[in-house]
Amino acid sequence: MNSQENEQMPEHKQVSLITGSSRGIGRALAIRLARRGGTVVVNYKRNEDLAKQVVAEIALAGGHGFAVQADVETTEGVTALFDEVANRCGRLDHFVSNAAASAFKNIIDLGPKHLDRSYAMNLRPFVLGAKEAVKLMDNGGRIVALSSYGSIRAYPTYATLGGMKAAIESWVRYMALEFAPYGINVNAVNGGLIDSDSLEFFYNVKGMPAMQGVLDRIPARRAGTVGEVADTIAFLLGRGASYITGQTLVVDGGLSVVAPPFFADADDDLALPPRPTRTPQTA
C-alpha cells in the first residue's frame, strides 16, 4: 500500500473516500466532489498512472486529492486504506463503496473460488469499510454503496454479482438503522446499463445477446453515463439528501419499470405517437 499526494494537506473541508476511483463512475464522482473544494481520496488496485491522472484532475477542479493503492479484496487492504485516511486526514465525511468485480458465468459453471471472490470483492469491502468509516465520522457523515440492475432482475451469467448487489442493498437498510444515532446516512445507487468499461466487458461475454436489443427496450432508449450515476451519488452526499437514508436510488432510464410486451416490439397500431403539441389559439 502506498500513496501519492498532489500537495500539502489543506485545512479541513469535506473528506471523501471512493474505492475503485481511478476510472469510470468513481473517477467521475471524484471530479464532481473536487468542485466542492474538498479532499478526495482516490483508491486504486493496480493502475497508478490512471490514479495520478485523477489526482491531477481533482486539483484542476479546485479540490485536493491523493491516491492510495490498496486491494480492498483483502481484509488487510481495507484496513491499510482506512489507516492511511486516518493518518493523512484524521477524519472522514463520505465513504463510497464503488469497486466491484465478478466472474460472469452460468450458475452451473460457478465454483467455490468464484463465489468466494465475489463475496471478497463486492460485499465484504463494503461492510468492513463502512465499519471503519464510522470510526472516522466524528461529526456525522454519508455512506453510499454502488449496486446494479442485477440486484432486482435476473439475466444470463450475472447471478454471483447480482446476488452480492442484492445483499449490499439489504446491508444498506440495516446500516441506516444502526448508524442513524451517529448522524450517518447510508444509501445505495442502483445503476442500469451504464456506458462504461464494465458494460462493454459484460456484453462481450461469449454468447451474450447484442446490447442494442436491450437499449431499444429502455424507455430512455440509451445507456446511461457514468456522469449521471456520479451526479446521483453526489446528491446523496450533499445537504439536499440529509433526510434520506436506507434507500436505493435507481438510475436506469426506466429499464426496471418495463416488462413484456414491449412498446419496441409493437406494430404500428400500438406504436407510441410523436409528442403532442398545443395548437395555437386564434383570437
TrEMBL record:
It holds the Pfam family adh_short_C2. Transmembrane segments: none annotated. One of its GO terms (molecular function) is oxidoreductase activity. Keywords: Oxidoreductase. CDD domains: ChcA_like_SDR_c (cd05359). The keyword Protein biosynthesis does not apply. Belongs to the short-chain dehydrogenases/reductases (SDR) family. This is Enoyl-[acyl-carrier-protein] reductase [NADPH] FabL. It comes from Paractinoplanes ferrugineus. The gene is fabL.
